[in-house]
Amino acid sequence: SGSALSTGDGEAMSAPVFGPEIVSFEPATGKEIWRAPVSDIDEAIKRARRAWPAWAAQPLSTRMELVRRFANEVRKDAEKLATMISRETGKPQWEAAAEVESVIAKVEVSIRAFAERTAQRRFDNAMQGTSAVRHKPHGVLAVLGPFNYPAHLPNAHIVPALIAGNAVIFKPSEKAPATGEMLQRCFNRAGITSAIMQFVCGGPEEGKQLVAHDGIDGVLFTGSANTGININRKLATRPDKIVALEMGGNNPVVLWDTPKLTDAAALIVRSAFSTAGQRCTAARRLIVKSSMYDSIVPELKSLADRLIFAEPFAEPAPFMGPVIDNAAADGLTESFLYLLSRGGKAIKHLVRPDENLPFLSPAIIDTTAMPDRPDVELFGPILQVIKVDDFDQAIAEANNTRFGLAASLIGGTPQEYNRFWANVRAGVINWNKGTIGPSHAAPVGGIGLSGNHRPTGYYAADYCAYPVSSGELDQPRALIGIGLRSGGE
Ligand code: NAD
Questions:
Q1: Ligand 1 atom closest to the CA of 173, numbered from 1
Q2: Would you say residue 30 has pLDDT above 50?
Q3: Where are the alpha helices (DSSP H) in 365-459?
Q4: What string of DSSP letters covers 169-191?
Q5: Nearest ligand 1 atom to alpha carbon 228
Q6: If you ran DSSP here, which 8-state letter would residue 289 be given?
Q7: How many CA atoms lie within 13 A of 371 on its CB side?
Q8: Which residue owns the Cα nearest ligand 1 atom 32?
Q9: Which residues lie closer than 8 Å to 302 by C-beta, 6 or more apart?
Q10: Fewer CB within a 10 Å sphere, N or C end of the chain?
């Protein structure tokens, strides 16, 4: 492993055929950084099923202690893990370091959430005696991860699942498997065995195998809407399996009256272009009051012109790196050209300085004149701008999507924000803030094509365990008072 592929020709990023192996490439250079054969999914599931009952029978305090040790292991390896995230995804070093902090923070948040959302509760009732509500784990859960936050997002399913007493089979994205493997080692070093928290190497095929397997009790997924819909369809006849789907968005920002143009522009640019636009909550559509258009557009353009996009370890530090691979860069370029061909007007062109590498400049395009804008998630640094005349039109435009992940109103009055909050369909709705970076201590999820009403974040505890209600007395105690024939004693 580790052999460098040439970066000087068109073949640079296309992997030769290696048989059943997953190969991870560094987007910024095209070099191979990791490879491994795909895992035997049947065997992985057998192992997890054998190990799970003992894990579920551990006291909760033991499982909590072990995930806390995991946080310590991540802390010890923070730099190495961040470097791997940067290499494998192309995101800047400072951003990868922040991702590692989120991995660590997730542990305490999940412990609190478990206690608050799924702890045991008892209540006494004169008629029925004591009732108790306790939660049980589902069993063996498959966690399928995306490439853009290859440590933090799968971890946001894994930690709550382990606390609740599930065994986890974790299949990271085939585009970021090395990060996934490092994460798993941290769990193992903390004392959570590789049968309880099991890394499997694979791509979509192995993902499908996991989803369809009888030995899996549920699927916790973060990725694109297409894949999520596929998973949902596969499990349509399996109501016994828990399915949590965290999918993409076509997220709107509405810009209304505000004198704070510089701040507004910074919020919009950060929302649209952080992580080279590869965030589920990234702003894709700026819906702007027509009277604000001429003042905000030059601000946005000049700020976007100044953003450094470069390899993750460059000095000075870049704002953003490349997109994940050449195929993604090709697709985004095609989409940008499509928008142009259908009446879109470029405010800032999408530029790809090197045809053999997936670096893309931030791009801004006015699509007001396009009759039917495609409602798809363009997972890259492309922001559409749409001009509207009144607030009703702004809300209608914000809702002009089947997705429903994040939405922001920048500017406007409290009354306008109330209307925005009430009428815009999304799981994250902000005011005078951007769309990205929702709080760890809040539930995070979307509606429509963005999710299946099982938000992650603070509410992940809910889908990692199911409630069992128990009526309990210390002795059997009952009389049949009504409906008995007279007789007996
Ligand atoms: P993806 O859907 O291509 O892949 C996600 C995972 O699913 C990978 O592990 C992949 O191997 C697996 N997979 C692919 N096809 C499968 C199938 N048919 N059956 C089972 N598993 C399959 O997603 P991606 O490109 O890695 O990630 C980017 C997407 O994730 C974007 O759409 C983004 O918006 C979304 N995302 C959502 C959230 C959220 O919290 N809502 C967070 C981050 C990313």
A1: 9
A2: yes
A3: 391-398, 414-423
A4: EEE--TTSHHHHHHHHHHHHHTT
A5: 2
A6: E
A7: 2
A8: 224
A9: none
A10: C
Set 26, 246, 377, 416: catalytic member: 246
- The structure tokens listed for 117 are 């959302």
Distance, in Å, from the CA atom of 271 to the CA atom of 433, rounded to the nearest integer, reads: 9
| Cα 52 to ligand 1 centroid, rounded to whole Å | 26
Q: Is the pLDDT of residue 154 over 90?
A: yes
Task: Provide the pairing of β-strand 382-388 with 406-410.
Answer: unpaired
Confidence of residue 50 (pLDDT cuts 50, 70, 90): very high
Contact 364/383 with Cβ under 8 angstroms?
A: yes
pLDDT computed for residue 19 by the predictor: 62
> Whole-angstrom Cα distance, residue 131 to residue 378?
50
ipTM, two decimals = 0.98
Q: How confident is the model at residue 6 (pLDDT cuts 50, 70, 90)?
A: very low
pLDDT at 82 over 90: yes
Residue 321 has pLDDT above 90, yes or no: yes
Residues 6+ apart with CB under 8 A from 188: 194, 197
Atom of ligand 1 nearest to the CA of 156: 40
Atom of ligand 1 nearest to the CA of 211: 20
CA-proximal residue: ligand 1, atom 39 (nearest): 246
How far is it, in rounded angstroms, from Cα 188 to Cα 200?
Answer: 14
What's the DSSP call for residue 274? G
User: Which tokens in the block code for residue 275?
Assistant: 């992580």
Burial class (CB in 10 A: 0-12, 13-18, 19+), 196: buried
CA of 304 to the centre of ligand 1 (A): 28
Position 378 pLDDT exceeds 90: yes
Q: What percent of the chain has pLDDT over 70?
A: 96
Strand 218-222 and strand 140-144: the pairing is: parallel
CA end-to-end span of the chain: 85
**Pure H helices in 78-203:** 78-89, 93-118, 152-164, 177-189
User: Is 246 an annotated catalytic residue?
Assistant: yes
Residue 370: CB atoms within 10 A of its CB come to 17
Q: Which of 169, 174, 222, 231 to mutate to test the pocket of ligand 1 (most atoms within 8 A of CB)?
A: 222
CB atoms under 10 Å from CB of 19, counted, come to 6
Residues in contact with ligand 1 by the CB-under-6-Å rule are 144-149, 153, 171, 173-174, 203-204, 207-208, 211, 222-224, 227, 230-231, 246-248, 280, 377, 379, 405, 446
SS3 427: coil
With both helix axes pointing from N to C terminus, report the angle between 78-89 and 177-189 in degrees, rounded to the nearest 10. Answer: 160
CA-wise closest residue to 407 among 441, 373, 447, 443: 447
Percent of the chain with pLDDT over 90: 89
